[in-house]
Amino acid sequence: MFLVFPRLGMLANVRTSRSALWRMAGFGGTALLFTLLIIAVRVRWVPMESVDHGIAEWLNQAVAPSDFLVTLMGGISRLGSFGVMAWLVVIGATLVLIRKQYRLAGFLVATTVGGLILDPTLKLAVGRLRPVVDQPVAQGGGNSFPSGHSLNSLICYTALLLVFLPALRPRWRRVAVIVVGALVALIGFSRLALGVHFLSDVIGGWSLGVAWIGLCATAFELLRYHEGRRVTEPLEEGLEPEAAEDLRPTEPHEHRTGVGWAVAGGVIAWVFTFGALVVIGLPLARYHDGNGNVLWDSTVPHWFAAHRSDALGHLSIVGSEVGNTHAILAIGLVIGAVSLAAVRRWRPVIFLLVVMFGELTLFLASAAIVDRARPDVENMDGPMPTSSFPSGHVAATILIWATAAVLVWPRTRAWWRWVLPVLAVAMPLWVAVSRMYRGMHHPTDILGSVVLSALWLYAVYWLVKPNADVSLEELPPPAGELQDMGVAR
């Protein structure tokens, strides 16, 4: 993968040079294979077309009749989707940036953005149509060659592997390489099984991906060489072996007992919170079929419905969307990545995961039991599969921003820490008003979300103790930056 110059004359570097030449030959071979595939696709070479169509028809006959296989292949395929890989790269880049590994962050961004540029432009240039099968089970957007899932999954997962490989113990590195290789192979196969790509599309995506990631890694290694550092074996040591300590998720620390008590206490807290929601929600759902005027439950939705306008409607759409599952998941991923990178402790991340998973399960369970009708006005978001009580949007928004404030506030004295408590109040208010404006919730649904959030957050904070590693006396002065978070050891 890397050019090694004659003045690296030591025996170890001679061995490295030989392996580098083999790797460079391999990358050149994959680039040549991709070029030949483009030519074959453009001229519609009959032997390749025959194999492509035969495999597409055979796999469609084998997979389409089985709902299980269709669902399985769809799930595997989503692991190569833009949404999943974009968040993996964002999380990875966030971690290495906070750890001050700027070149590794640049490598991640450059390789993945390059793949995003190559995929659509080549699809347009080649212009190959997707397979037409007897029993379609999935639909792909755009042209067929090369397979974007195959190309970008190879680039993304390999780039993440090369960056974070030094953080793994040596005995686990080969396992990681095998796992990544198997995952990329499964994603490519899933695109064939779903009938949205030909075999040559997938092979073309893989060959271009190998060539591109090889080129980027070679450039990275040449930079190391010109800085006078040794040339590495990336699939054995990673791109930056010296960064191993910085790349490890956490620092070594003493393990504290009490995990069993925390789990048992969490289950008990969940049950009592669920009970409180059911006790509050069931009478509201039964009174006037859920539309009684308890605490203005009927007055408020009707007032909002009578005062709707285009401008307020657009504002309410944004307010509703910032509390939906996808937005909360995105915010949670960023908070989790920043917490792990800056604090270097698992406890804050566990706190975040338990809080949000508990909120989701409490909302779904209580909504299923209470089964309260939506307000008897126009529901601007249409029919919803869940009950009106409690509001999942509001509960999730309260907890995600409150969790961020809980984690950040004790770890810095900088002025910007005040932003998070403000957001922990302002964001839920915006979401709550938007949901009521759109006719999706009663005021007491919002009250139920507040009860859920307060009880569950307090219980998890008391059990997990996410700030147990913080000593206020050791905090940096107010001028401290984000990297000062978690300096107390």
TrEMBL record:
Residues 102-217, 351-461 form the Phosphatidic acid phosphatase type 2/haloperoxidase domain. SMART domains: acidPPc. The chain crosses the membrane at residues 21-41, 79-98, 105-126, 150-168, 175-199, 205-223, 258-285, 325-343, 350-370, 390-408, 415-434, 446-464. This is Phosphatidic acid phosphatase type 2/haloperoxidase domain-containing protein. The keyword Transmembrane helix applies. Keywords: Membrane, Transmembrane, Transmembrane helix. Gene3D superfamilies: Phosphatidic acid phosphatase type 2/haloperoxidase (1.20.144.10). The keyword Transcription regulation does not apply. InterPro entries: PAP2/HPO, PAP2/HPO_sf. SUPFAM superfamilies: Acid phosphatase/Vanadium-dependent haloperoxidase (SSF48317).
